[in-house]
Every structure is written in C-alpha cells, then in structure tokens.
C-alpha cells in the first residue's frame, strides 16, 4: 500500500486526507493519505523516508513551504520562482518540489464568472500562500497588486521577490476591484478590523479560508453588495494537481467531491 502525508504545524484543520482518500477509493488506488504534525527538526527524517520510498508523496503546508527547499534536489519553475513548495515527488531518484497552489488559485478564479485581467487587487496578509497568489495574478495580467500586512516588513520582503507590488499600511484600504483575505483572520471567527463601506460595490471579495465556508470578511463583502468566493475550489484544485503529479490521473471534481470535504 502506498503512503502519502501532508506535513505542517498546525495540521489539525487540514482536509487533504479526506479528499485524497476519497479519490483513492473512487479510482481504486491502494494507498493511504494521512496528516502529520511535525517540527522543523523532523523535516530531514520525513524527507529521507520519501527518498527511501517508505513514503510515496508529501504535501507541505504552513510553515514549511519555504524551509523544505534545501532538502530537495530540484524545483519546478513555479516552485523556484515563488520559493514555495507544497507537493514533493520522487522522480528518477530526484526529490522534486512542485507548487500546485498557483494552479489551484488560477483555476478557482477562472471558474468564477469574473474577468480578472486588468483589475486592481488588494491582498491582505503576507503568509505562506501569498507568493503563489501573486505569481498567479501576474500571469493573469492584473493591472496592480497592493499588499497590506500587519507586520509590514513581511510585505516589504515580498516586494524584493515581486517588484511590481505596492505596500500599504495595515489598517488602511486602497481602491480595489478584488480584495483577497490571505490572513488567518476568520479561521476562528475573528473579524478583520477594516472598514470596507466606502469601497463601492460589485467588487470581488475572495477569502483563501474555506472552513468556515463564510468568514466575517465574506459576510461583510456580501452585505455591501459584492461578489464573494471562499477558498474551497482553490483547495480542491491544488489537491487535483498534486494527485495528477503522483498518480498520473485527473481525479473527478463533482458534487460528491464537494460533499466529502464539507466540514461545517
Ligand atoms: P505564516 O505567517 O507563518 O506564513 P500564515 O497562516 O500563512 O502563516 O499567515 C498568517 C497571516 O495572517 C499573516 O499575514 C499574519 O500577519 P503577520 O505577518 O503580521 O503575522 C496574518 N495575521 C494573523 N493574525 C493576525 C491579526 N490578529 N491581525 C492581522 N493579521 C494577522
């Protein structure tokens, strides 16, 4: 039986095992996928188990997407350019790091009836998934990306990687067509202390969080007359891409898939 893991810390919230195990069942793949909470000093051991084929694939989540890179032999172009790895595969004895968050976000946006090309984007947060979102937005030819993070230095560091960013002080709002919550605020029902009431309507409020399905950020966006979307499809599509890399199969995404990860 093949073995797969998602590693992170914290990891309790991860719905990746439910989704991958569901796809194993419907595709009749003899494998199991589990979550594993690790510390940074466990990374070396778990990665060596992949090299020794005791494990067949690893998904990486916060806070290890960048720290894992020195343990790998090769990176895909997207992983290299974002310095962010969420999927690892052993390919011809090389440990290869991939980034499927980019395709996940891109497919989720394309699935909406919303043309993002030429739009002004405001990103809240500068954590693990943000480089992938910026990379994807640049590829989709948005006109401007503004980033605001409580710890301003982290937003400024991202500007070294992505020169076209504009950095905004936390607590203020700029003009935007699309606003993305990439902070962890909302995971535990917290409210983002920002006033969106003067931002107009018919914008897109996008939250990377998918559990709960509707954060206060999305509720507020909806109340003010905007389109809203949570991170569920992004999550499903990043898993879809990882599944394809590991098994060479495109898993099905249908109502049963959505039902599998309904956790509210
Ligand atoms: P990491 O920062 O380890 O990559 P993450 O979950 O990907 O973890 O990111 C958490 C994001 O939520 C960060 O942008 C964080 O802001 P800081 O960089 O200032 O920590 C943001 N965040 C978490 N709690 C917050 C709060 N109470 N107010 C504002 N932003 C918060």
Explain this structure.
Strands 2-1-3-5-6-4 form a six-stranded mixed beta sheet. The relative contact order is 0.14. It is 33% helix and 21% strand. The model has no long low-confidence stretch (mean pLDDT 96). It is of the alpha/beta class and 264 residues long. It has two domains: 2-99 and 236-260, Leucine Dehydrogenase, chain A, domain 1 (Rossmann fold, 3-Layer(aba) Sandwich), CATH 3.40.50; 102-230, 3-Layer(aba) Sandwich (Rossmann fold). The chain contains nine helices and twelve strands. Helix 4 (101-110) crosses helix 5 (130-139) and helix 4 packs across helix 8 (232-247).
CATH homologous superfamily placement of the largest domain = NAD(P)-binding Rossmann-like Domain
CATH architecture classification of the largest domain: 3-Layer(aba) Sandwich
Structural class: alpha/beta
Number of helices: 9
């Amino acid at each position: 039986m093949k073995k797969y893991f998602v590693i992170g810390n914290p990891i309790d919230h991860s719905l990746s095992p439910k989704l991958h195990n569901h796809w194993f069942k419907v595709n009749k793949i003899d494998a199991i996928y589990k979550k594993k909470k690790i510390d940074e000093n466990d990374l070396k051991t778990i990665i060596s188990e992949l090299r020794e084929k005791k494990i067949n694939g690893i998904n990486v989540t916060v806070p290890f997407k960048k720290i894992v890179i020195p343990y790998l032999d090769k990176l895909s172009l997207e992983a290299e350019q974002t310095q962010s790895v969420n999927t690892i595969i052993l390919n011809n004895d090389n440990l290869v790091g991939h980034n499927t968050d980019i395709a996940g976000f891109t497919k989720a946006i394309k699935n909406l009836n919303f043309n993002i090309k030429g739009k002004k984007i405001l990103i809240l947060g500068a954590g693990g998934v943000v480089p992938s979102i910026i990379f994807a937005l640049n590829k989709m030819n948005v006109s401007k990306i503004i980033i605001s993070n409580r710890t301003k230095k982290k937003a400024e560091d991202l500007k070294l990687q992505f020169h076209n960013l504009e950095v905004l002080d936390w607590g203020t709002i700029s003009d935007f067509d699309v606003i993305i919550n990439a902070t962890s605020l909302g995971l535990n029902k917290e409210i983002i202390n920002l006033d969106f009431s003067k931002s107009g309507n018919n914008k897109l409020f996008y939250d990377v969080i998918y559990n709960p399905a509707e954060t206060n950020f999305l509720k507020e966006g909806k109340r003010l007359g905007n389109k809203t979307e949570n991170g569920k499809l992004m999550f499903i599509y990043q898993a879809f891409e990882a599944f394809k890399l590991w098994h060479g199969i495109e898993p099905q995404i249908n109502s049963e898939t959505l039902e599998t990860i309904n956790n509210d």
